[in-house]
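Researcher: I've been going back and forth with a colleague about how Aspartyl/glutamyl-tRNA(Asn/Gln) amidotransferase subunit C might be arranged in three dimensions. Neither of us has a model we trust, so I'd like an independent prediction. The organism is Stagnihabitans tardus, in case that matters for your notes. Sequence below.
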Amino acid sequence: MSIDIATAAKVAKLARIRVEEDQLPKLAEQLSGILGFMEQLNEVNVDGIEPMVSVTPMRLVRRKDAVTDGNIQAQVLKNAPDAREGFFAVPKVVE
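Model: Here is an independent structure prediction for Aspartyl/glutamyl-tRNA(Asn/Gln) amidotransferase subunit C. You can compare it with whatever you and your colleague have in mind.
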């Protein structure tokens, strides 16, 4: 698949990146190369192959899912303009 300069400009606009006019041909060439590589990957037969986490056989290290306060309450409140009894103190906004 080949990307033309107008499509490259549209992709740059959608991605919110500024590309100078003289750089658009190079961008179009690079995008075409990426799409060509993706087409190559689509030709590979992956039926019956399970997804991998890593190229080395290993299990993901899992941590216990426990809620903690982080044990850094003093550090968190150190820069607060007003802290009372271990909490942020804010002005009353509801009468």
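Researcher: What would you highlight for our discussion?
Model: I'd start with this: The chain has a mean pLDDT of 90. After that, consider the following. Residues 5-42 form one domain.
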